[in-house]
Amino acid sequence: MNIRKIEEKDLDYLADLYVSVFNAEPWNDDWTKAWAYERLEFIFKSYRFYGYVAENENGLVGAVFSRIGSFKGELELEIVEVFVSGNEQRKGVGVALMDELKSQAKKDNITCFFLLTDKTTFAKDFYLKYGYHGHEENLLMTHEF
Q1: Which residues constitute the domain of residue 49?
Q2: What range(s) does the N-acetyltransferase domain occupy (predicted)?
Q3: Between the CA of residue 86 and those of 28, 61, 107, 129, what are the distances in Å?
């Protein structure tokens, strides 16, 4: 498996992969390719984007999209999207992507990663196993209008 930086030319294929992952179990979303492409392109073009793809003999099989922010004088990395092909899940692809992200982030003096994930899916277990922890005092709030 090869891990490399995401390039703009990857976005079209990654949008297809994103749809296939998040429209399947356990998320069962209703993403269209156009929505997925727009989301991934927006993150890709955001200020201080960090992103990596995993590729093997089957092509691109996973990706992590993130961006750098600052909090109290420290650099932190917001992980916005992580997804791995259904056929490649639980084979070390996600760990390889996170390891590369962590390695590069350390070189850039990033001291913290943070993310939002669904606590009812195996994604939560993946992040807990990788060393993440939740915070009881934090609350996700939204306002739709």
Answers
A1: 2-130
A2: 1-145
A3: 13, 9, 31, 19
Model pLDDT for residues 44-63, shown as the tens digit of each residue:
999 999 999 999 998 999 99
pLDDT for res 47: 93
Distance CA(76)–CA(68), nearest Å, equals: 6
The answer to whether residue 141 sits within a structural domain is no
User: What single string gives the DSSP state of each residue in the chain?
Assistant: -EEEE--GGGHHHHHHHHHHHHTSTTT-----HHHHHHHHHHHHTSTTEEEEEEEETTEEEEEEEEEEEEETTEEEEEEEEEEE-GGGTTTTHHHHHHHHHHHHHHHTTEEEEEE---TTSHHHHHHHHHT----TT--------
- Supply the pTM of this predicted model: 0.88
Among residues 94, 87, 95, 24, the alpha carbon closest in space to that of 57 is found at 87
Q: Which comes out higher in pLDDT, residue 63 or 130?
A: 63
- Domain contains 139: no
